[in-house]
């Protein structure tokens, strides 16, 4: 995992699944370290699932859910 993350940090293009990307957003918003690096281009595997998964992350991180 550490080796893969180190390689991703140097990449211009990063391919991630939607769960990892959204989890990274939540971690960054919480003020913690990033899971994946910033990239010029982000390619999503299974991108058609992003709206449903994003709404789940949004609901679980809203103040009413906590």
From TrEMBL:
Tell me a Gene Ontology molecular-function term this record carries: DNA binding
InterPro entries with a match to the protein in the record: Helic_SF1/SF2_ATP-bd_DinG/Rad3 (IPR014013), P-loop_NTPase (IPR027417), RAD3-like_helicase_DEAD (IPR010614)
Please give the Gene3D superfamilies that the UniProt record associates with this protein. P-loop containing nucleotide triphosphate hydrolases (3.40.50.300)
Keywords, A to Z, come to: ATP-binding, Helicase, Hydrolase, Nucleotide-binding
Q: Domain Helicase ATP-binding spans what residues?
A: 1-66
Question: Does the record carry GTP-binding as a key word?
Answer: no
The protein in question is named Bifunctional ATP-dependent DNA helicase/DNA polymerase III subunit epsilon
To which species is this protein native?
Serratia fonticola
């Amino acid at each position: 995992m550490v080796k893969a993350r180190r390689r991703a940090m140097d990449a211009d293009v990063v391919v991630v699944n939607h769960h990892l990307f959204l989890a990274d957003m939540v971690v960054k918003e919480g003020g913690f370290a990033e899971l994946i690096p910033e990239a010029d281009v982000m390619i999503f595997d299974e991108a058609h699932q992003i709206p449903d998964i994003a709404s789940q992350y949004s609901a679980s991180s809203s103040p009413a859910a906590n």
